[in-house]
Design a protein that fits this description.
36% helix, globular, eight-stranded mixed beta sheet, alpha/beta, four-stranded mixed beta sheet, 13 helices, 16 strands
């Protein structure tokens, strides 16, 4: 009789387990001391997360003891609140540095260790407390998770395009590979975290991830049209980029059916051929006045730059990001930065070694 009861209990447990979906990823909102921002972020996420809650368990990770942030997080039954209390003094490495960047790096390590090692999630999507999400945010990451399983050269998937301002984007269905880590709403796997956690930096974790010694030639998936919108004018970055780069970002408002999309073109071996073909078909533009010339040509165009100062000069003319990290311009793939100008025309800024890296014979 005892054996029969145990058998029935096990079967009942199994049935309950079958009903519980294996999560695609935990979603964590990194918060500190902005209760009003946090509320806006949570509301934006719950609008689309409710329907897929079992696939995307929601967490708020609070750094510090701000009572309003704690109260706000605990007022939602749909999420789990975690609190990082760290009283260790922060020692900056250079004079004049903001302590905030050190605290942020500590908090990220603590939260990701907890989600991957204690909660045992296989993937985590990291959001900040000043973000809104697109209607297809969760479907996008589910499709991307399947891609990451197949292609280990993808280090992380981001919902962000640094050059995703309204004037530079057009197609919500197009995704790109990039050598530059975008951040701002991104997903990584447990195996990648296991590699990064022991050597996690004291500060500036995002720029640290952009170093060759850490990404080791792996790449990142990013959309043309952003799936997150960053509304945080007040924060650790002190609003430095906000008006120029963040405020004009286009947040996708179309429900793309990612389940029906064939994303095999993004696999490493396919993508290099796919991207090379598009680039070869773009018309070359030479000399000064690249912006004016690009506007007068039908179809996609490419502008070749000689070095970093030359790239910065051309990028400044178009109004896209000029910044580089460890030899890679923001958003670049094999030294090529692509954006629309004006949409739907694509402009490719092409580096001195890009053709060689893409296996393109001179055209």
């Amino acid at each position: 009789m005892k054996a029969l009861v145990q058998d029935l209990q096990l079967k009942g447990l199994q049935r309950r387990m079958d009903k519980i979906q294996t999560p695609v990823a935990a979603v964590v909102i990194m918060a500190c001391n902005r209760a009003d921002y946090l509320e806006r972020t949570i509301k934006s996420i719950l609008k689309y997360q409710n329907a897929v809650a079992s696939k995307y368990p929601l967490f708020v990770s609070q750094d510090g003891s701000d009572p309003q942030v704690r109260e706000k997080a605990l007022s939602y039954d749909q999420l789990t609140h975690m609190q990082h209390l760290d009283s260790k003094p922060v020692q900056t490495e250079r004079p004049g540095e903001l302590i905030a960047y050190y605290k942020i790096a500590r908090h990220y390590k603590w939260a990701l260790d907890k989600l991957f090692h204690e909660y045992k999630f296989s993937r985590v999507i990291i959001l900040e407390d000043d973000m809104e999400i697109a209607p297809d945010f969760f479907d996008y990451f589910e499709a991307a998770a399947a891609l990451m399983e197949k292609d280990k050269t993808i280090m992380a998937v981001s919902s962000w395009n640094d050059n995703g301002q309204k004037q530079f984007v057009h197609d919500p269905e197009i995704l790109y590979r990039s050598d530059f880590f975008p951040g701002l709403g991104w997903m990584l796997t447990k195996s990648t975290w296991n590699e990064l956690s022991p050597k996690w930096p004291k500060a500036y974790w995002d720029d640290w991830l952009r170093l060759q010694e850490n990404h080791k030639g792996r790449q990142f998936i990013r959309p043309e049209v952003c799936r997150t919108y960053n509304f945080g004018e007040h924060g650790s970055s002190l609003g430095q980029f906000f008006r120029q780069y963040l405020e004009p970002i286009k947040l996708n408002d179309v429900q793309v059916d990612w389940k029906s999309k064939d994303l095999s073109y993004l696999m490493e071996d396919e993508y290099i051929k796919h991207f090379a073909e598009i680039l070869k078909n773009a018309k070359p533009i030479n000399g000064a006045d690249a912006v004016l010339k690009a506007s007068n040509v039908q179809g996609d165009v490419r502008v070749h730059y000689k070095d970093q100062p030359d790239f910065e000069r051309i990028a400044r003319q178009f109004g896209v990001f000029q910044e580089w990290k460890d030899g890679v311009p923001r958003t670049a793939y094999k030294g090529v930065v692509v954006f629309r100008y004006p949409p739907p025309r694509r402009v490719f800024l092409v580096g001195p070694k890009s053709f060689e890296l893409l296996g393109i014979k001179s055209v």
